[in-house]
Specification:
- The chain has 371 residues and is α/β, with parallel strands linked by helices.
- The chain has a single domain, classed as TIM Barrel (Alpha-Beta Barrel), CATH 3.20.20.
- Helix content is 33%, strand content 13%.
- The protein has twelve helices and eight strands.
- Helix 8 links the parallel strand 6 and strand 7.
- The two termini are 13 Å apart.
């Protein structure tokens, strides 16, 4: 208890810096660059060596902060090119307070520009980057053109055994993750929302032939490759279908709480069937739909149980999620947005920045401890 108190005091002191800077717009130049022939904007940087000494110190503190308990920032990032003048096309232009990014729509080889951007975001800002796609059927996104999934994964790779084909598919994903030095895989699993298939159904994901052993084999194979190297598996969509033992293989549960209309409904989304998951409160994220609601910071009709949030003209849903208190009295593990790059209303990533700023403020009066 005493250690927790000390940790919170330390985090409070650090948050005084973190919340005021790491969720604000990044400066394009620093004071000591004024004497240089040309200040280098962040969007044009290609190497950590281009950072000033002050910037290097700043980002070292940021990376240290990300190792402390806090409300994590997450998002599915689409349209990533790392080219041009649009900051929403770069990972390194994401808010400093973003911890984890799932690459949405990135399945093929990375360009040199993307590799440079990825390296900068991971090494300088301490961000984690995951491959991600919907997994409904064996071979999704990776089956070679001109071949059927069954012929390639089951017959050719699996020697006629479906589960061996599943293992080959999982290992192929791991090969890509290792090739580009990514941080893991985000399994988008939505069998009850139009994403069913031979890998995805409504049964428990368990090491049991009467349950969904296909997805269990997939997760276990990923885990055996990724975990020893410090990489993660994130499970989004329907985490409540994970059997308790299997949930131990998963780093975070991402709930797509897009259309929940109020605080109670959002809590119900994660408590109904979620309590049995391993360390479920410390590993739970709530996410919003920004493909539809980026201009209003989430569902425009959302009602918060907090008076200070309810009075906001916009952003009530994302602010409420960032301040959400779990049933055990602790804070939610993190928040995120689908198509985070569309958060442009009133400035780049305005709503995500503001929500993470509010979510990461800790004071004696709030009494909202982190995990």
């Amino acid at each position: 208890m005493k250690m927790l108190k000390y940790a919170l005091v330390a985090l409070t002191a650090l948050s005084a810096v973190a919340c005021s800077k790491w969720t604000d717009e990044e400066k394009l130049s620093f004071d000591n660059q004024q004497g240089l022939k040309r200040a280098i904007p962040m969007i044009e940087m290609t190497s950590p060596d281009q950072l000033t000494p002050e910037q290097k110190e700043y980002y070292a503190k940021l990376r240290a902060w990300k190792q402390t308990p806090h409300v994590r920032g997450f998002g599915w990032f689409g349209g990533w090119t790392a080219k041009g003048t649009d900051p929403q096309k770069y990972l390194r232009m994401l808010p400093d307070s973003v911890d984890i990014v799932s690459l949405w729509g990135t399945h093929g080889d990375l360009t040199e520009a993307q590799k440079t951007d990825l390296k900068f975001f991971r090494e300088v800002k301490g961000g984690k980057v995951l491959l991600c796609w919907i997994v409904s059927n064996l071979g999704d996104q990776l089956t070679p053109k001109g071949k059927s999934a069954t012929d390639y994964w089951v017959t050719e790779k699996g020697g006629g055994d479906f589960l061996e084909g599943v293992k080959a598919y999982a290992n192929a994903i791991c090969d890509s993750i290792e090739k580009y030095d990514l941080d893991g895989f985000d399994i988008d699993y939505e069998p009850n929302y139009g994403g069913s298939g031979n890998m995805a159904n409504s049964n428990w994901i368990a090491d049991d032939s009467n349950e969904n052993i296909n997805m269990y084999t997939f997760i276990k194979t990923l885990y055996d490759r990724l975990n020893p190297k410090g990489r993660m598996i994130v499970f989004d969509g329907e985490p409540y279908l994970l059997a308790p033992d299997v949930s131990k293989l998963v780093s975070f549960y991402i709930y797509q709480a897009y259309h929940e209309s109020n605080t109670a409904a959002a809590l119900k989304k994660i408590t109904d069937g979620g309590e049995y998951l391993d360390n479920w409160e410390a590993k739970t994220f709530l996410t919003l739909e920004f493909q539809m609601y980026a201009k209003t910071g989430g569902l425009p009709t959302y009602t918060s149980s907090r008076a200070d949030i309810q009075k906001l003209d916009a952003g009530r849903q994302i602010m409420d999620y960032a301040r959400m208190i779990m049933p055990n009295g602790k804070r939610i593990a993190g928040i995120g947005t689908y198509h985070m790059e569309l958060d442009t209303e009133g400035g780049n990533y305005r709503f995500l920045r503001q929500a993470l700023n509010a979510g990461n403020r800790v004071s004696e009066t709030q009494k909202e401890p982190f995990q």
